[in-house]
Amino acid sequence: MSETTPAAETAAPHRYTAQLAAEIEGRWQDFWDTHGTFAAPNPSGDLDADPDLAARPKKFIMDMFPYPSGAGLHVGHPLGYIATDVYARYQRMTGHNVLHTLGFDAFGLPAEQYAVQTGTHPRVSTEANIVTMRAQLRRLGLGHDKRRSFATIDPDYYRWTQWIFLQIYDSWYDKAADRARPIADLVAQFADGTRATPDGRPWAELTPAEQSDVLGTHRLAYAAESPVNWCPGLGTVLANEEVTAEGRSERGNYPVFKANLRQWMMRITAYADRLLADLDALDWPEAIKLQQRNWIGRSEGARVDFPVHTVDGAPGEHAVTVFTTRQDTLFGATYMVLAPEHDLVDAIVPAGWPAGIPEVWTGGHATPAAAVAAYRKQAASKSDVERQAEAKDKTGVFTGAYAVNPVTGEPVPVFIADYVLMGYGTGAIMAVPAHDSRDFAFARAFELPMRCVVRPTDGRGEDPATWDDAFASYDAEIVNSANDTVSLNGLGVTEAKTAITAWLTERDIGHGTVNYRLRDWLFSRQRYWGEPFPIVYDEDGVPHALPDSMLPVELPEVDDYSPRTFDPDDADTSPETPLSRNADWVTVELDLGDGPRTYRRETNTMPNWAGSCWYELRYLDPFNSQALVDPAVESYWMGPREGQPAGGVDLYVGGAEHAVLHLLYARFWHKVLYDLGHISSFEPFHKLYNQGMIQAYVYRDARGIAVPAAEVTEDGAGTYHYQGEKVSRLLGKMGKSLKNAVTPDEICAEYGADTLRLYEMAMGPLDVSRPWDTRAVVGQYRLLQRLWRNVVDETTGEVTVSDAEPDEQTLRALHKAIDGVRGDLADLRFNTAIAKITELNNHLTKSGAPVPRAVAEQLVLLIAPLAPHIAEELWSRLGHPTSVAHADFPVADPELAQDPAVTCVVQVKGKVKARLEVPPAIADADLEALALADPAVVTALGGAAVRKVIVRAPKLVNIVV
RNA sequence: GCCCCGGUAGCCCAGCGGAAGAGGCAGUGCUCUCAAACAGCAUCCAGCGUGGGUUCGAAUCCCACCCGGGGUACCA
Questions:
Q1: Do the annotations mark residue A736 as ligand-binding?
Q2: Is A780's CB less than 7 Å from nucleic acid strand B?
Q3: A777: which nucleotide lies closest, measuring CA to C1'?
Q4: Could you tell me if A537 and A420 lie in one domain?
């Protein structure tokens, strides 16, 4: 955009230019800060300031916690922040006490990696980034309650993160009560014998270490040896949720390996059912609910024991338990598969191959043990990518052992194969090749028998030998499924499941069960830049929780905070925690109640999800030093109420990429705190909204390298050039590396923050992704210029509004706009709200006359949530001494919002033949008579008999002949 | 493979059972200007991805398919 020339400035010295916008915006931002315009009062406590405001209905509006990136913001980042700000401002103007603020999620890998790259201490670089980001966001005019902003790295904040960890650590899940309870209750049960210890000895006879181990199997936060995702390239272990389907780290895209390590875990699985069930009460996008449901992966089925005998051993020596959702097909189970890592494999492998087995079963090995060892080695060396790529080609090997199908009594061979996963169900399956496509593929590859036990409904016949794939439908009848004591023949799938489950239960062979895909949450990381655990170990290695008085456990200053990383492909490495290098800090003398003793600190740190698991609660009461949140304050802002049975934040806006990770973890912590009586809501976020992405064109040269988008030229024929060379164009993400980033700072400088806000909101619906187009920004700038001109004389700077009464047409346009804008803003349809404001403003511009004051003021109020700076300025120039932020939003007069006459379309056989101007309240009968009497209609009918008349007063009459 | 979301003027998008268009960008012409930019005024532009169906009537509802985006993936 070109500079305003001196000539133009002379002609219109008071025009709304970027310079004027910048001046106005800076001035009002200062005003808001000075006057605490957006400070939301609490009903009690140290933020209790304004009882009148606190008496209003509340709205708690939140954005997802950003991490303060060192790279700076591009225009895509603030999209959600602007949207929540517009919504919050609208709610504030419609009589609500609105809490809206923004803090920073400043621990974790991104902040640490940035710090490592730039060679500065994470705290220094992170705090500098926060300062930069705060300045960038301030420029947008966001109405945040800045008193309530904090960062997760503030010791005052992570003191409570640690406190919550201890609450979780000191809790267990009481299945009978279906809630978490203090671990002390469990200790009491063990102590008084209500609950037996695992080995039956009295509780008091267990050593402290043994007691600690027993409690560890119940605690909601526990340390355990388990197979975890070890990422040498990052030097840390990762949660399942942080590993992509390709078996790489979500951050950095490094290979991830399975390793058995002692790590902290969170028993989120205890909450699987509630996390699933409570989704129903939430106002979330269905897609996100679906992703959470899939992640939790509840499936109903049965566990069935298959006795296994080896050729050498006695029958029934071992039993392999399988999990199946198709217990109705048990008669069709013709072989079994164990995961290669299954711990029963070694116990059942015989010394030699049984006689007469097909050659493919042995994998060419001389003994079962050799075959198993070779297959295990091969399976372990395969990356998940390879495993996935080869998913269609089933591999495996016979263990040499046979199990007994408990309903048919037939021996079934037991295989190991990597298509059965150790981590799901029991790590063992019964294979029903006729009715499961994976088993079918395996059976074909290994010449295994199939038995049809569900009659196909697609006419393929009952001989699986002739089939191309398994028949897996549920909507069919069971056949070939009977023994001496039970018959499923003729039953449907559902009835058969019930019947066979009852039969299995009666004989103690199996039972109905529910299985979850969800696993416990790996909670420790080998990082410096995270919350330290408030845990120390004594000389016996028994963990001890630190008392409240010793919190926070602050991160020590260290010289070397870098993670120890390794060759990304070297699986034979193990993590080293940066904190362990600091002996002075690790070894500590404490008095935990039995005199001063020497302890060793936990040197893992918490994952970056920890700080974002509960921040919504701290916004409510950020300075409380006695509790994480005052219960009265929590209940005021988040408590359950009409339409929000679980309570929670009224509106939570953020990207869909957090569908599982953050949202699941935060819900889990919230429920624990609820169970322990600290809060009254049992869901953190009532309404969730996912904003779309702002995309941008990526231009690449012949080598495929991105070229600066700003310097690409377009010719008429839709081809693009950079420095004379043809380049390709593709819609993608916006970012520095793609050389297509546009920053809010440059748009603000060019047009002002109000224009940027309007443009981002006008581009399209909030939840849809759309491409950024810098050229189009000027449209919103023009709107603001016209608005300005409708109130202020560009030459003199005088307010030009008249005291005349508005004419009827203008009044109607105004009330129609008010009516529409209210609905649109309340429903986050900012794009259409802006269109309606533009329409009204254009109407006033076209009329040419000075705008009546009454109309100008209402117009300013209408646009105030969207373009708050210009609204404040005009509001002030119109003579109002107070901020527009708490002014009342206009209310439409329903009479005026409706047109006095509407055009009614008269159709004959669906074709428009006449138009009538009728009052909107006209009765159906009157309208029909009017239509039938219309000369054009009479002509069109040509005397034909009228069969039917459809009347949709007042807009349409359709005559069928 | 499966599951979501979306395909309406050159572009971004309204309309979501009843005359295809709310708003914006770009284009074109004109006004202002010495000229240009800015600004203003006017104007051009689609038959709603494709094919079926339901209906008096479909961009809107249903089915199938195509294209684009996202998610997920041997979960027994």
A1: yes
A2: yes
A3: B25
A4: no
